[in-house]
Task: structure prediction
Amino acid sequence: MFTEVIKPRFLETDALGHINNNTYGVWFEAARDEIFRIFMPKANVKEWNIIMAHSPFDFLKEVFWGKKVIVKTGVIKLGNSSIELGHAVYQEGKLCTTGKCVLIHYNFETKQAVSVPKDIREELEKHLFSGHWLGTLEEIEEYERSNKN
Amino acid sequence: MFTEVIKPRFLETDALGHINNNTYGVWFEAARDEIFRIFMPKANVKEWNIIMAHSPFDFLKEVFWGKKVIVKTGVIKLGNSSIELGHAVYQEGKLCTTGKCVLIHYNFETKQAVSVPKDIREELEKHLFSGHWLGTLEEIEEYERSNKN
Amino acid sequence: MFTEVIKPRFLETDALGHINNNTYGVWFEAARDEIFRIFMPKANVKEWNIIMAHSPFDFLKEVFWGKKVIVKTGVIKLGNSSIELGHAVYQEGKLCTTGKCVLIHYNFETKQAVSVPKDIREELEKHLFSGHWLGTLEEIEEYERSNKN
Amino acid sequence: MFTEVIKPRFLETDALGHINNNTYGVWFEAARDEIFRIFMPKANVKEWNIIMAHSPFDFLKEVFWGKKVIVKTGVIKLGNSSIELGHAVYQEGKLCTTGKCVLIHYNFETKQAVSVPKDIREELEKHLFSGHWLGTLEEIEEYERSNKN
Result:
């Protein structure tokens, strides 16, 4: 699991007084930076080789400006050319937002999906997602309670 | 169905040369403006009474700067206090991105979900989502082909 | 003068309840779309030939979600390779924000400034900026008073 | 001087392949976080007491995704109720963007500017801006050359 610490930015709030829902995708993209570097070690845009096919978000609790946020990221599923990632946003020890995304290893010239090479696959397998947040709300609450003790 | 015409903004592109995935949620929020006004006729932030619980996105085709985009929005499902909306982004007659969102009619003071009142419900029922994009890719392609003729 | 009508987006507000200051640059960029098309008639990113060197903003009045905004844009000064533009944001007939920007006609391959060709120059001269907002605050207030009558 | 280390986000790039100009204001706002906390120690939006009146930007060099950025922030001038800040963005040891902003200590209830209290003033004076970037381009280049040796 990767851990990204993010300071909410004031412009990421909206008139309701908390972080706007469109911000979480931005944070998740920032948190995928380490994943991007597994696929593109030189962090060079010209060698870009992944696209996103699908992404769902669940908004559980409000997030506020003024307190740091932790974004946990890990691999949920590894297909032939696809990778499913999970993301979870925590603020003050509470799970606030979850999301997933399906990435496709992709050749921009031939415009086709490409198998994930063995070395990348092995590196990704070191960062499997393990999170109670994938369970029911009760499991999440149990997880949070146990983390406080 | 509501129709929102949007000019992609240059900063909404990214280094891959097309619209960044995080932009679609922003456009969908803009396209929900008419829905917001059904719930809050005065468009006053202080009377805000909906929250978003869940939102998935499907990225089908790249969208580019320089050509207008149409965002179609309609009601998919009306629950007791929840409303599911569908969104579809078209550029040059092609379906590029789809999304849904589940909104909850909500009382920010009591922090509880509230039944959607009858008058709002009746207004929402006038804007049901009807879109082939909810079907398979083949159906979408068939729909696009038939629209060209 | 170009006129761009913009609906403020909810995510463009912040926790203070009005439009976040970082939004105006985004609107100004959107309002420059017509200028971009004078320089790049095909609206193709690959033929991009301008860069921004400098840009100041003046924040006069708060702008709110829920009411449309007008952005006025015109040419203030035409140099050899540089163009100075002026922008002004109005909401409900009041001048809220002003900005300028200095663009340079630029060759991305040779990385050098390039003279603005005669045909582009003639087109730009049709869109000169004329606005009392370039004057003192008193002149702006006088202008707004006279617009109400 | 405050130092904020920022990882450019992929969505902050645009189709020209580098960071979009509208991003710098966002980074500067993030870098003002420490200044905000001098004015509002509880980091509570309800006690907000500053507004921005003016802000210019100078774009000197392109900034890229994939390499960290340093934003230096300091106080340029302290007026009775106003504070002028300077910001400078460095990537790979090079000065890329500069900006200033004029903030006003403000009472949102009476809608009036308010003198900066003595304790805040003393705290701000510890963070004066000192940067060659305020000089000419030649001075900036000299400064960068000398930093390499």
